[in-house]
Request: fold
Amino acid sequence: MTTVTCYLHGGYPHSEELVALARDAARGRRPASDVFRQRRVDQAEMEAVQREAGLTYVSSGMLGWQDGFRPLIAACPEWETGPLRRWFATNTFARIPVVRGTSGLDRGLLAAALEADGTAGPAGEVGTLPGPYTFSRIADTSGDRDTLIGSLAAGVLRPAAEVLTAHGARVIHLQEPWLAAHGIGDSCWAHLAGAVDQVRDGLGVPVVVHAYFGDAGPWLGRLQALPADAVGVDLTETDLTALSGRWTTGLLVGCVDGRSSLAEDPAALAALARRIITMADPPWLILSSGCELDLLPRAVADRKTRVLGQAARLLALETAC
Amino acid sequence: MLTPLLACELGSLAKPAWRVKAAAGRPAEEADIAEARAWGQRLGVDGYQDLLVLLRKPSLSSAQRQHIRDWSSRYGLRFFETAGLDVVYDGEQQRSEMYSWAIEHAAGFDTRGSVRSFDDKYYTKSAVTGPVALRAPYHDAEFRLLRTAARRPVKVPVTGPYTLAVWSFDERYTRAADYTVPVTERRRQRAAARRQFVLDVARNLVRPNIDALLRLGARWIQIDEPGGSTEPDEIVLMAEAYNACVDGLDATFSTHLCFSDYRLFFPGIAAMTGCAQFAVGFANDDRRELGTSDSARPGYHIIRAFRDLPGNPALGLGVLDVHTDFIEPPELVRDRILYAVRVFGGPERLQIMPDCGLRTRSWPIAYRKLGSMTAGVRLARAALGL
Reply:
């Protein structure tokens, strides 16, 4: 019997009002407090969209995160933000983490950033973090990148996951776009497995490893062997047939395209999910977006969120019948 | 064009508050007028007092707002000229933004909303929904003004077709994905759709706009492709679209690429046969310490690949990081240039510029950076005995 849930991971777009206020604040025309106030409005609105859509877990949308690394870097006293890098094949850029020193993440600093009016905003029920493999490849480091996979998990991602769960996260979502987009060497798998175990062991909430922005098909066997509660793929890039065969771990299906403004058909997505259940029979099926939705304008993302919820509802109705 | 170490303008400048407010129909405040006066004096803008009179008006007609935009162009022009640059433009003061300005003058697009570029910087993203066409040439008015006002040669920046397409959503050439179709077939369909979209933008929008500029006497057009490496397997398409814009036209054409893993551009950009200069940002990835060794200049190792391009195009060497307020000392600019001169075996194919447009920096910071750049060029010229 497959349990079906749905949620959004990663960042969510800012409203047009928040964009305008942030622009004005950057130019000194409005106080920063106006931005915080509007961000709370945005937060409430996007949570309402998710609740009305019927998503299982409500994401915070990471509205205060300038990219997926910034509050983590700020919470690691010896680290700095580096130059801008293109975020995979998108027109969004992130500042790469400059990883130096060994002090690791200061839980208090991250917690403060997540609390009321903190720079990062609330944690939400979906705690999204950069996956240890992707983090190790993107970081500016003078050390060995394979070794970094484990030290990032122990020193940064596990403490961050604990802070997020303490602030309400009910699932930890590790984003691993590098894995699908650029591949992974044989020698890295043991490091990655150890890192996922480091994040998940005794955490008390499920951990999902999501490979997207590329074809996860070649890696699915080894992904399923990771000590994760679920493994995620991006169906924009991964063939449906690659999912066939009985799954013993959970399966996250990225079936809403975060890089296209065209809205998916909820009935088609429900039929797709039903087909996946038939062909893979995973114990846990998660319907989500292929990549984070913050690559879209807010109105488009809202529409896709509703589609995701409608698809899950249709699937639930059919299952109930 | 192959003047050694020619110092060139590149792209956009921030718009002054008085220009932004005028465009939005808001009155200028005393601080804005004081700023206009101070920069008018500093840059030696002829007749800037007329601008101050205009800014004091409680309300502005449409024609008066355009006059203020024209003033902004004159200020931008003098900004680059007095900073000591050899090739100038106006910092794109007339344009809303490099993407949206072109899209606003095109048929076949509908606005979808704001999308983050980085940090708290956003752009308004549109979707192609119908046949792409040029509604009206969109750089003619600014060029008419600048060709008569400029005291130095001008280079007209034009947003490239690949960037216009890849920064847009596609609701015309593709449909929502059908995940039951094999992914290899979907990729083939996506690639074919993208190619048609990009080439339609090149042939039906960008090229006619360039044609109009050439008819007005423009001699150097820079086709900006900051989105060029978004999809690494589409570099060849970007090159094909570039060629579709310029083939058979009589002018100097160059391109600007930035903030990418530049290795991805090779060998694809070798097909841009009519490209006289590749203007590329490197300082963003470089160190701030002085030195001309390989270890001192990690951001510039890739220039060897540009050196070896067929046809010996010039390299527009980015020496200013446009994302920080750090003022590069002239000696650092000099060392970046001297490193490149050593790699290229001489200065003949090197021209000097910021990494990208300076629009995210304030005018005082941008002016100091450019002043440092031109001082660094002078130091390099002296060191080379030029």
